[in-house]
């Protein structure tokens, strides 16, 4: 891997939803060997309905990741838009994303979560691969501190919208099935990229799946952590990037990323630089927010930050 970037460097990006979409959109500017590892705890909207009705992993975040990796041609972009199309009807299809239905149909036909995702990737001529963190649906739960009182909430939507500060996370089932392809991808990656995304429902849950968490700890020296850029969201209201790092350290005390990417607007958050220094991690600061948005990354700026992180890792 060159100090700049290499089309052959193996990158695995973990997360879910819009955060992972942003990460993949940036990384695909730097490498042709890109794998997404996606959380499967969503229980809302179209994904939640299909999860309950068909007893399959929620397909929405997987669909988003596949869309981010589509071939940059008329063919790839057209099928990306088809996957993202959402029905608006007065009947049972209302709110369903067509791609969610396609993925669920392929799972029904193949009987294999990974194989079904690979077929959708072929349709998109995807530049990379999408894998689930587990091949069965997960339920995330949390203990939430609300002014000194503790409330327990269950489900990704409830965790993401719960008032107060999240004190503890756990998953059901406790030992989900993890595809061998997922663990192999992390183990063989030159760079493992974690975040950005909904911190408690898309980023931290990877560490709660024991084999994946162990693989991430083992990959610490090859890891890049991207902190979020928004100042306020429902899930982390009243907290900041320093709190996010502390939450990660509590969930995965053995994990210490080699590089941490921070948006310039958060670089001076109290205590953040000291925590990153204690990790022994390099501190990459960039202006990452896309003009005119609150929580969307500029893909070119994000790619530049990843390019700098790759150069740091290449130097050892």
Give an account of the 3D structure.
The protein has helices spanning 17-27, 45-54, 60-68, 74-84, 98-110, 113-124, 156-161, 180-188, 199-203, 205-208, 210-218, 241-251, 272-279, 299-315; strands at 10-15, 33-38, 129-132, 139-146, 149-154, 165-172, 191-194, 223-226, 259-263, 282-286. The model has no long low-confidence stretch (mean pLDDT 92). The strands form two sheets. Strands 3-2-1-7-8-9-10 form a seven-stranded parallel beta sheet, sandwiched between helices. The protein has a domain at 40-132. By secondary structure, it is of the alpha/beta class. The radius of gyration is 19 Å and the shape is globular. Helix 1 packs parallel to helix 3 (60-68) and helix 5 (98-110) crosses helix 6 (113-124).
Oligomer: single chain
Shape category: globular
Helix content: 40-55%
Strand order of the largest sheet: 3-2-1-7-8-9-10
Count up the helices: 14
Mean pLDDT: 92
Distance between the termini: 11 Å
Write the H/E string, N to C: EHEHHHHHEEEHEHEHHHEHEHEH
Question: Low-confidence spans: pLDDT under 50, at least 5 residues?
Answer: none
Total number of β-strand segments?
A: 10
Largest sheet: 7 strands, parallel
Helical/strand content category: alpha/beta
Radius of gyration: 19 Å
Q: Strand share of the residues?
A: 15-25%
Write the layout of secondary structure elements.
Elements: E1 10-15, H1 17-27, E2 33-38, H2 45-54, H3 60-68, H4 74-84, H5 98-110, H6 113-124, E3 129-132, E4 139-146, E5 149-154, H7 156-161, E6 165-172, H8 180-188, E7 191-194, H9 199-203, H10 205-208, H11 210-218, E8 223-226, H12 241-251, E9 259-263, H13 272-279, E10 282-286, H14 299-315
Parallel strand pairs: 1-2, 1-7, 2-3, 7-8, 8-9, 9-10
Antiparallel strand pairs: 4-5, 4-6
């Amino acid at each position: 891997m060159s100090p700049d970037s290499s089309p052959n460097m193996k990158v695995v990006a973990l997360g879910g939803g819009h955060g992972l979409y942003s990460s993949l959109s940036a990384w695909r500017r730097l490498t042709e060997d890109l794998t997404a590892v996606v959380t499967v705890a969503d229980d809302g909207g179209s994904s939640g309905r299909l999860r309950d009705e068909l007893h399959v992993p929620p397909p929405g975040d997987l669909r988003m990741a596949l869309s981010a990796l589509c071939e940059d041609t008329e063919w790839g972009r057209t099928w990306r838009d088809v996957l993202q199309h959402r029905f608006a009807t007065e009947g049972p299809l209302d709110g369903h994303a067509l791609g969610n239905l396609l993925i669920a149909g392929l799972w029904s036909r193949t009987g294999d979560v990974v194989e079904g995702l690979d077929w959708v990737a072929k349709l998109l001529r995807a530049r990379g691969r999408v894998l689930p963190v587990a091949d069965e649906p997960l339920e995330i739960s949390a203990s939430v501190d609300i002014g000194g009182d503790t409330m327990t909430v269950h489900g990704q939507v409830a965790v993401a919208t719960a008032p107060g500060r999240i004190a503890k996370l756990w998953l059901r089932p406790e030992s989900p099935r993890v595809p061998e392809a997922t663990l192999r991808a992390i183990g063989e990656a030159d760079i493992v990229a974690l975040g950005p995304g909904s911190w408690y429902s898309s980023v931290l849950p990877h560490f709660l799946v024991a084999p994946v968490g162990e693989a991430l700890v083992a990959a610490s020296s090859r890891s890049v952590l991207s902190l979020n850029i928004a100042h306020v969201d429902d899930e982390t209201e009243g907290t900041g990037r320093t709190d996010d790092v502390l939450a990660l350290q509590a969930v995965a005390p053995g994990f210490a990323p080699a590089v941490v990417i921070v948006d310039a607007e958060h670089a001076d958050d109290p205590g953040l630089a000291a925590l990153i220094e204690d990790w022994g991690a390099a501190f990459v600061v960039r202006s990452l927010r896309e003009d005119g948005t609150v929580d969307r990354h500029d893909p070119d700026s994000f790619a530049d930050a990843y390019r700098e992180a790759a150069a740091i890792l290449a130097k050892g």
